[in-house]
Structure formats: C-alpha cells, structure tokens
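User: My instructor asked us to take a sequence, write out its structure as tokens, and then describe one feature of it. I'm not sure where to start. Here is the sequence I was given:
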Amino acid sequence: MRNIKDNELNDRRTTAQQAKLAQLQAFKAAREAAEPMAEARQAERIAAAAARDERRAEREKLKAEERERAVAEAAAKEAAATAAARAEADAREEAEKARITRVIEDEAARKASRDKRYADRKARQS
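Assistant: Let's start with the prediction itself. The structure tokens for your sequence are:
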C-alpha cells in the first residue's frame, strides 16, 4: 500500500509545478514584506559609510596636523641646536681672544719687568 492514489506522470508534473509556483509566490511575498526593512538597512549602510568616511577624514586631518606639528617642532629643535652651537662657538672664540689678550699682556708685563731690571742693572753699573 505504498501509493493508494494512482498518480500518473501528468499528475506528478502538475503537482510539482504547483509546488514550484507556491514557493515562488511565497518568495515574492517575503521579499515584498522585507522591502521596507531592506530600504532601512540600505539607509543604515549609507549612514554608516558616511560616518566612516567622516571619521577617516578626521583621522587624516589629525595625522596631518600631527605631522605639521612634528615638522615645526623638529625645525624649532634644529634652530635651537644651531643657536646653541653658535653661542658655544662664540663663547670659545671669546675665551680664545681673552686668553690671547692675557698672554700678550703677560708677555708685555714680563718684557717691562725685564727692561726695568736691565735699566736698574745699567744704572748700578754706571
């Protein structure tokens, strides 16, 4: 008693075709019912994409500002280092000039002392 009804080939084809049509109608009905939600999801996706682009632009702007700040900071450090090196070189040069001046003064003082001793000796001899 497998199949009480005597299904012929045409009956089975008709049944299969009706089942396919029923599935197609159910799919269309589900799609039409979900269409407002799909539009809402699409709107959410668009809003999320816009927000993502806005955040990306903000990050890029912050990175550019950070790069500009770093470049300015590096330039300021380099200028400060150059100024410090120049000041150090000037100080060394000034110290060297002072040392040379002291050496010349000491040499002049020694010469004057020597000349005075020589003059005193000559005065005693005469």
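For the description part of your assignment, you could build on this observation: The radius of gyration is 52 Å. Try explaining in your own words what that tells you about the chain.
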